[in-house]
Every structure is written in C-alpha cells, then in structure tokens.
Amino acid sequence: MISRQKSIEILEAQSAQHDLLDKPLSQWRLTLRRFRGRRSGMVGLGIVVFLILMAIFAPVIAPYPPNEVLIGKEDVGPREKPCIHILGCDENKPQHIMGTDGNVRDEFSRIIYGARISLTLGFFTVTIALLVGGFFGAIAGYVGGWFDNIVMRIMDVILGFPSLLLAIAIVAVLGPGLQNALIAIAIVAIPAYARVMRAQVLAIKESDFVQASVALGSSSRQLLLRRVIPNALTPLVVLATLGVATAILEAAGLSFLGLGAQPPNPEWGSMLAQERNNLFTSPLLVFFPGFAIMLTVLGFNLMGDGLRDALDPALNR
Amino acid sequence: MRRKNLWFLAVVVLALVASACSSSSDETTTTAAPEATTTTQAETTTTAVPSPDFEGKVLDSGGCDTDGYSGRVDTITAIDEYTVEFKLCNPHPAFLAQIAFGVFGIQPEEHLEATGGAPLANPVGTGPFAVKEWLRGDSVVFTRNDDYYGQVAPQETLVLKWSTESAGRLLELQSGNADGMTFPGVQDYPTIEADPNLQLLNKPEPNIFYMGFTNTFAPWDNVDVRKAVAMGIDRQRIVDTFYPPGSETASHFTPCSVQFGCEGDSWYDFDAEAAKTLLADAGFPDGFDTTIYYRDVTRGYLPTPGDVAADIQAQLKENLNINAEIVVMESGEFIQTSSAGGLDGIHLLGWTGDYPHITNFLDFHFAETNLQFGNPYPEIYEPLKTASQTADAATAQPLYEEANNAIKEFVPMVPIAHGGAAYVATSAVQGAYAPPWGDVTFNLWDNGGDTIVFVQGNEPISLYCADETDGESLRACAQVVEALYSYDKDGNVQPQLATECVPNDDLSVWTCSLRQGVVFHDGSTFDANDVVVSYTAGLDAASPLHTGNSGVFEYYDYLWNGLINAPAAEG
What we know:
With 317 residues, chain A is mainly alpha-helical.
C-alpha cells in the first residue's frame, strides 16, 4: 500500500528523470501521470467509465425494454424476487436478475437504462451551468465595474437559497418533467461556476504573461479567449466533475418528489419513489436504484477529487 | 386575647357553615336536571317532560322551485322539544340513509353560535368521545364521554394519529405503538395475514375506481374514441395485478351491493382488436397523444395509484397506440379541476359511497349540474332525476336500468374496479370491526388498556365535518358528533339521536322523534332546536352560522340539491 505522499514523490522523481533524459512533459501529461497515481481517482474513473459503457450499450446489456410490462407475457407478478438460474432459481421461471417492479417490468433493465437518463442529465446540466456561469463569470471578472457588480449580486441572490429548494421552486413554476428538472438544476448550479471563473479571471488578468500580451497590442477579445479563459479552466474542470455528481443527486431528489422524470421513465430517483412504500416487503426494489445513485455519485466524487489533486499546481513543486 | 380568639373561632365556624350550605345548594342545582329525567342503565332510552316554554325554530327555504332555489328542503321545523319535521320538496326515498351520514351531525345551537358557525377544532357532540386536544401535525386526543347513552368506551383515551405511507402505519402496529390502522398496502396483505399479532378487518365499502373523460376536449368529444378506450383497457388485468383480495372488476358504475346498482347491461368486454378498429374508424388509426391525470392518494378504490396509472399508460400504448403522459397533481387541485371539467385528458378518480343508496353514486356523478365529464348527457340524468323522486322501488328499477345503459352507451367514464378495502388491528383488540358505511366508533374497540391508538392516512382538515369531505376528518368527527341516524357494523341504517323518523305516504315529509335526555359534551341538553340550527348552519348560505372551514359545505350542497339562499353563480 503506497501512501499518497509516497506516490507523489515517485511521480515527481519520474517526472524529474524524464525532464533530464527527454524533452519536457506537457502540463496535461503531467496531470495525467499525477492522476494515475491517485488510486481513489482511478477507482472513480473506473466507475464512471463503467457507467458510461453501461449507458451506451444499454440495449445490448438489458434483457428487456425498460418499459415493457410483462403481464401476460411471462409467468411473473409484481415485485417478484430476483431469479438467477445459476444461483439455483427454478429453470422454468423466467430469469430476472433484480426481480420485477410494481408494474411487472424487469428491474435490471430499468436500472441499466436509468444510467442513460442520469448521466445525460448530469452532463447536460453541468454543461449548461459551465457555459452560462463561465461566460458571465469571465466577463464580470474581466470587465469589472457595474457589470461585475450586477452579475455577482444576482449570483449572490441565487446562492442565497438552498439549491434543492430553489430547484423545486423553479420546477414548480416550469412544471414537472425531466427537461424542466434539468433546466432548474442548471440554473441553480450557475453561480458556483460564475464565481470560480470570475476569481480565476481576476487573478490571471494581472499575470505577467497577460500584461505582456497587452503590451504587444492584443485586443480584449483575444486576451480573454486566448490567454485568460484557457488558463482559468482548471478549477472549473474539477468543479464540473464534482458538479455532475451533485446534479445527478439533485435530479434524483426532484424525481423522488415527483418533480423530475415522469413515469414510465426509468429514472433512479423516481424508481425509488415508486417503491418507497414497499421498503419492508420488497427492500431490493428500493436498494437497487438507491445503490445505483450512490455508485454514480461516488464515482464522480472520487474522480473529481483525483482530478483536483492532479491539477493542483502546488504538486508540481 | 381569649375573647378575640373566641370571636375568630365563631367567624370561622360561621364561614364553614355558610360554605357547606352554598355547596349543597349548588349540588341541588346541578342535579335538578337529572332529577327531571328518569334514566335507567339497562335501557338507553330516556324520557323527559317537554318544556311548555319551548320555542321551536324553523329553517324555511321560502318555498320549492322558487327563483334561485331548486333544492330538496322546503322547511325543517322543531315541532316541539323532541320532534323535528323535515318537509321536502319531492319524495325522498333515500332520506334515512342520507341523514345517517356523519356530515349531518348535530351540535348544540349555543356552541355553533359561540363559535360563529366554525367549531373547526373544538366540536361539541353527543358521541362516545370528546375532543381533548388537537396537536397539529401529530395527533388528535379524545377523552371518553362517561355520560354516553350508548356503550361507554372501555378506554379512557383515544389517540388518532396519521401516516401517509401504509408501510409506516403498519410499522406503528408491528412495533406496538398503535392498535389499529386504515388501508394496508396491497403488498402487505400476506404479511398481515401471517402475523398472529395482527388481524385483517375486511371493509366491504362500496366504491368505484374509474377513468373519466371530459367531452368538451378533443378527442374525447368523440363517443367512438371513448368507446375504443373502454374496450381497449384490460380491466381484469388491473384488478388481478394491483388490487387486494375482495376486489372485483366493475360491471357497472355502482357496486351490485347497492340496490339497482347493476340494473342494465354489463360493461364492454376487453377486445383490443375491436378497440383498435373502432379508434381507426373514429379517425385515429395511428392513435394520438393525451395525458393521464391522477392524485397520489391511496384509497380503497385505488390502493396503488402510481402502479395503476403506469399500467393504463402501458395498455393505451400497447393496445391503441395512444401516447399518454402521466401527470401527478396535488390532491385538492386535482379534485377541483376534475370536478369542474377542466382536465383535457383521462383522469383517474374514484368514489366511496357515503350512504347506502344508488343516488349517492349515480346522481352525484351524472346529474345535470355535474360538469366533471363535460356536457351532461340528458339520456343519463333525466331518468336519474325521475328515479330519485320515485318512492316506489318497482317504478324506479327500469329508470335505473335506462340510466345504466345510457352510461354504457355514452361512456363518460370507464368503470374499472370495486376495490376491496381493509383496516388492520392488533390481535389484542376485542370487537374490532370495519364497517361498509360510515366509520368505526372506537367505543366498540377494546384493547384492554386505558388508551387506544389508531393510525389513519392523513391529518384531519378540520373537526367540523359539515364542511369537510375527506375521510380523515369524517373519522375524527364520528367519535364526537352524531347524526339523527347512523350505520351499524353491517352498514344498516339505525336510529341514533332520533328514535325514529316516520314518513308520510309519498315520502316527502319525515317526522323525527328525538332521543330524550341526551346531553352534549358541554353539558347542554339535546333538543329539536339543535337539529334545526345544525342543519341551518349547513344549508342556509345566508345564515350567520354558515361559516365552516371553506364555506363550501359541499355535501349539504349536493345531497340536498343545492343550498338555500345560495349566492348567484358568477358569470
């Protein structure tokens, strides 16, 4: 078991050796090296890759369409316990790895397809928040003055509300549904990206290399797009990775409350909500979607933590 | 000094004597009323000498079929202290069944006046329990009415709690925190039946779960579309999969246990091919998009709303290629909007009978004034109106047959199921029951302790049930306030605060003799004016006592065919 500090030292030694023997490593390759040295980050990456593959190949992996009701097609009833033939389940009974849900649909297939919804929702939400928040944060930080004041006060107001509560309020206005839940979660996430981007821009625009560009006659647009924003992205990447986990969790929360994905969409939060009344009689139907949510959030959090460490410039020293 | 002491002693003695005299005169005052009545423990009836000074009150609608009033009530008159006469505008065969409904409970006129017609948290009645306190968000606590004229409760305290999830309610029972609960989840039936510490109390409540259409929205304005959906839904599959034992697929809107409920032809059989053809002929060969609206509230007629909605959605897609989006609405908004005919898709709703008469099912839903299914159908409401005013059962029978056949022909809704409902009690409870009509009164349950705890689905909205419609409020009220008649354990109508109500020949005038010597929880004596004033508070919109909780008095309005002095409808 190599300690984290030890792995950093090894990486740095390797890096130094590489520097001496070969041409210098790029920043991204260094980051990748440092990331590979973080076991938890790699575990997180593994989980995320696994989920992405599961989402992409859902039609191949899932034995049934997610919304197919099996009443009259197979000899199964609602909330049947898992039946796995190799584990001794009667061969004459149809195999359902995770059993069936209350509407006699294959639970395993729904869990598999649920990854599509959750990951899509997480990525889109973060992308919207990153683009909008990043844009306003960058402009506010670079321009300053009254524009900065107005934008950041708006962001402060949004941040003043608990995120899930604000998301619920927005969905209440827009109406329940997956799309509106996505918009609500994105709106709630915007201020975090705006603030981080603004802080980065404020620091970078005073850097020597930016001042040098100014002296060389670069326009404001060139400065912002070519010098400032690319160098401000690092913390935003970390924030976005962690943000995916938060977005998935909030989406599941909204769906649990009936404000997110609507039936028959196999969204994990709504699947959990549908079976909450059967916690004692069919605990697995609550456990499986709950575990899927937990695993996804854990994966993104571990990966985010690993990325943060890997991208930390202090670890270059 | 010694003389002073003697004087002091004399004063003390005099004061004690005076105090003793005063207390004995108080006792005389309080016992005066009981002395005037003769009560025997074995018999529940008491007699009292009617007061010659009694001034009877009258509720006068101003005459039947006058401008703006077309309700059932002509006058309600306190003839003497213990006699009330209900003079109605038309014959009313279901009168006794109707007045037994707990909404028409009697409270003392002085209390109604003192609370401005809104005893929302402090009702006063004659029932086996009195309200002690309402801990908002937690429970309602009742104390035993030791002077109850009926069977006095074995427990000193009744606690009514609530938990929205059936699993949560069952857990309360299993953990020993409660003695009884309402409506277990379908999936919990085997657990309950296998548990020797629990008893499942089947509640044969007549109910109906249906999917309704509003014919003012396309494509539901097309009767063939409605018929196609009626034939394209496998109702048996829904009942088999999602309903507990004791449930049945509905052949008619009204359960067959209600007289005339199943007159006429049975509902359409499931035939997906014929349904698809009919839909294509109606101009929708590729189906269409619609919405399924429902509220996520468990009832005996719909034990698993989400599952049933999802299955109907799947069947519509599979059998008719209709894409239905499911929309879960807040309960109050759903009831309000669906009742007003404001939902453009399919709405999943149901009905639990309030009193044992077919009018309670058909007249409420298909009357001329009901807009729930859009424009009302005269082929349905006209025979219903005639039948509701017909005293002779033989004459009424063909009219109900005609109405039921018209419902099948015009398909304002698709009747799905009559749900089997149940309560659960711990095995320790003796005498536990769940009646088909009305609600349990817990003086008949005995857990052998001092306190009995019952868990229901939700908190009561208020404890003044003249202006409430939800079962949770009615259950709480049933412990405190009694009506002139009530339902026994088997659902039969029996006299309660009245000893009998006798009709005239055409059932349009009912004279009720009241039980004498009954005392309200506040100590006031029950008499005919309390009946007239209680009905006035509910029925007369111009009365200063017509306040209530929402002020709608929905049951008074619909069961008496409208309020007296009702404000003119807007627009």
